[in-house]
Amino acid sequence: MSARYDRYDGWASLYNATMGPEYGHAQFEIVERLILPSIPARATILDLCCGTGQLLTPLAEAGYAVTGLDGSTEMLRFAAENAPDAKLVAEDAREFRNPEAFDAVVSTSASLNHVGSLDDLQCVFGNVFASLRPGGGFLFDLNHPAQLERWWNGRPTEGEIDRHLAWMITPEYDAARSEGRFTVTVYSAPEASIRPWKTPLYRLLSLPRFIGLRLCAIGRFDRLEPEWARDSMAFPVFGHSIDGVRERLERVGFDDICVETADGMPLDENHSAHFVCRKPSEDA
Q: pLDDT digits over 149-164, tens only?
């Protein structure tokens, strides 16, 4: 397994406690609409780059036999707690292969943006193709270059504060290099520095309507809470062109390739691209 995934271990606990549950619920609704109607009841599904496994749980509860694959062993440790009925595999998405084991493969939350080149992405697609049964479906989403260029502009987009912990995510993208990153900044409070009078203020800032003020406050935490410990983790992403991705899917054998937004609308610069494609059936 590639050591490049070790960097995600440090994010696993925070992701599992904050973004993971919300993302899992939202992604299940997309999977339910775009891929589940085309596969049989109790089908086998692979969640590729499953992270902490929040998507595995509703799939298992719906009666599907689920497998989660991820390159981060710490992510999988939380996935084992969140989805105890799932089979979990620690593997690099560019190297795994389980011939004709699945009726569908899904990869959500723009996980494949972490694959560094179209050649590597083609390796992933080839492994998915080999692992699908004839007629099986493949669903994945990507943050595409036009979307990245518009929205990944170096300003914080998500974050939370409570009396012990504050965190925020800042995405950046260099269109000339087709590369970007998102930085996760975390502040942790030593017990002795927690000030009870500030708890109501942080609770107020945590309301959805105050996200702008909340992110502004976290951005100034070095001054607001100088005793809190600061940590920062940066994760690279790559802007793969829509046409390039489509061509690599076709090259490994996929057909019926459809690209749209999560809501089924034509692709634009405001939304991620959802790809749905199929491995040809034996009688095709």
A: 999 999 999 999 887 8
